[in-house]
Specification:
- The chain has 2 helices and 9 strands; from the N terminus they run βββββααββββ.
- The chain has a 4-stranded antiparallel beta sheet, with helices on one face.
- The chain starts with a strand and ends in a 5-residue tail after the last strand.
């Protein structure tokens, strides 16, 4: 069983923040708008660690988080995000599907999270306003992660496609 690391997130995809950092004397540390650390609470925001999530499904969590955000939503990671909102209002054509595939490929490969040759993304139109993007990630250890993502071209709503028997 392979365990991967990722930031710890809530079920809704919100980042869970860790305990505040302190200096050598145990005083809380803050960071101001210039990036300087201080113990003056009135000058900034608490410095906090981001706890890690270590689990089998961490890779799926990274994919989910990247799909549900647009760049530059994350201040310290300005390229992180699929930018799928660019598809809102577009017709459900091959060109729109190809654009979505390109956006997904970029967000999963730009920083080396997934190697280009280990990623397969397909766009399948379901109806006039819905595309399912099938994302398949292969690891060097022959582990595959399938992530079918349903995208609504009218509202930009993302949901995971579940197969029930």
């Amino acid at each position: 069983m392979i365990f991967k690391r990722d930031w710890r997130m809530t079920e809704d995809g919100d980042l869970i923040m860790g305990s505040p950092k302190t200096d050598e004397e145990g005083r809380l540390l803050y960071i101001d708008i210039f990036g300087d650390k201080t113990t003056d609470a009135g000058r900034g925001t608490l410095v906090r660690d981001i706890p890690l999530h270590v689990a089998e499904n961490a890779e799926e969590q990274v994919i989910r988080n990247r799909m549900k955000t647009d760049a530059p939503d994350w201040f310290l990671h300005p390229e992180l995000g699929s930018n799928l909102s660019e598809l809102i209002g577009e017709p459900n054509t091959r060109a729109t599907g190809d654009k979505g595939v390109s956006l997904i490929r970029h967000t999963l490969t730009y920083d080396g999270f997934v190697a280009e040759n280990n990623l397969s993304v397909r766009a399948v139109p379901v109806d006039a306003i819905t595309i399912i993007f099938y994302i398949e990630v292969k690891s060097d250890l022959e582990i595959e992660v399938y992530y079918p993502l349903v995208f609504n071209l009218e509202h930009g709503i993302l949901s995971e496609y579940e197969v029930t028997t």
